[in-house]
Design goal:
- The chain is of the alpha/beta class.
- It folds into two domains: 98 residues, no CATH class; 208 residues, 3-Layer(aba) Sandwich (Rossmann fold), CATH 3.40.50.150.
- The chain contains eleven helices and eight strands.
- Helix 1 runs antiparallel to helix 3.
- The longest helix has 38 residues.
- The chain is globular.
């Protein structure tokens, strides 16, 4: 959908993008300080030990203190600034947004759905109000924050990663695909592009994010089945899918919810079907200093309370405990990012009723 930001909103969002790009030099200076002072070697392995060792020591770096201040301001400001930018153009684009909720893709709402305790009231990524914090939060987060700010600052890599992840499944032509925690539909669209003949489903707790996924699908004339449901209790038919997937959902769930989601994926898959869960880099694959940075900026200060739990948990073992016959958890490409869990349901497993 075409739209034009007003001057104030465009300037505010551009400033945040530029600030993020230029703050990378502060991070490089902080890294150089750590290397000069012997803070990158002889480190403990566990996240708590790393925090106790490095967080106080890095406070001696002026570059680190400034970087921390900048990132705190970005985290506190990006949501309100994006909402303000939307409100400036709301009257201009709301009719088009509403029109895109009419079309082949519709949402099965469930307003009485029990909301998991880990989700209720949580402002993931420090997004003001959380995923349902505004009546157009799907557009605010999925379009203004994720595409216009985060993806632009990272030169389009985020959306490219989602498109590439869609093709990781060891199936040539999946017939029915479920995108768990589909949010605003970025990964779902990658699935639809990769497998245009497949029947595409998506589920999410957030009604507002599902509405943005609906608009994304209807803008392209796509027919998706969108359901308001938690991934660990979808209410969908057993053995209905041959491919169940998610992108960047597991790091927003505690381990017990991750296990429940995998058990639900196992139930939903037909025998021989695959689950593919793509997410952040495992801690064991990162040198201790890099692990500390990931933990500090995301778990400690980034509004991701389960980041550490995901990155420290053997997802392949978790999948096997949920009933999968085969499971691998590994990094993709030379940078080993993103990390992906690929697990297969036993071909001889009896279909659940």
């Amino acid at each position: 959908m075409e739209y034009t930001l007003k001057q104030r909103g465009r300037a505010s969002m551009s400033f945040l993008v530029d600030l993020g790009v230029h703050s990378q030099r502060l991070e490089q200076q902080a890294d150089a300080f750590a290397a000069r002072h012997g803070l990158t070697a002889g480190l403990p392995e566990d996240p708590e030990g790393l925090q106790a060792r490095l967080a106080p020591a890095m406070q001696e770096s002026a570059a680190f203190r400034l970087l921390r201040m900048v990132r705190e301001w970005q985290l506190d400001s990006h949501g309100p600034l994006a909402v303000a930018a939307f409100e400036e153009i709301r009257a201009d684009i709301e009719p088009a947004l509403q029109a895109l909720q009419q079309g082949p893709t519709q949402i099965r709402y469930n307003p009485q759905m029990p909301v998991p305790a880990y989700w209720h009231g949580q402002e993931f990524h420090r997004t003001a109000g959380g995923w349902d914090g505004h009546d157009y939060m799907g557009f605010v987060h999925g379009e203004l924050i994720h595409r216009r700010m985060v993806d632009e600052a990272r030169e389009g890599v985020i959306l490219k990663q989602r498109a590439a992840a869609a093709r990781l499944v060891p199936l040539a032509a999946p017939r029915r695909i479920l995108d768990m925690g589909c949010g605003s539909g970025q990964h779902t669209e990658g699935l639809a592009v990769a497998f245009p003949e497949a029947e595409i489903w998506g589920c999410d707790i957030s009604a507002r994010q599902l509405e943005e996924a609906q608009r994304r699908a209807n803008a392209h004339g796509l027919r998706w089945q969108l359901v308001q449901a938690a991934a660990e209790d979808t209410g969908l038919p057993a053995a209905h899918f041959d491919y169940v997937t998610s992108y960047a959902m597991f790091h927003e769930c505690p381990v017990e919810a991750q296990r429940a989601v995998l058990a639900e994926a196992h139930r939903l898959l037909e025998p021989g079907g695959y689950v593919v869960m793509t997410d952040i880099k495992a801690y064991h694959a990162q040198p201790p200093y890099e692990r500390w940075k990931a933990d500090f900026w995301n778990q400690v200060h980034g509004g991701d309370p389960f980041w550490r739990a995901y990155a420290s948990t053997d997802q392949a073992a978790l999948a096997r405990s949920a009933g999968f016959a085969e499971a691998r958890w590994f990094g993709v490409g030379e940078q080993q990012y993103p990390w992906v869990l690929i697990a297969r349901k036993d071909s001889s497993a009896a279909r659940a009723s």
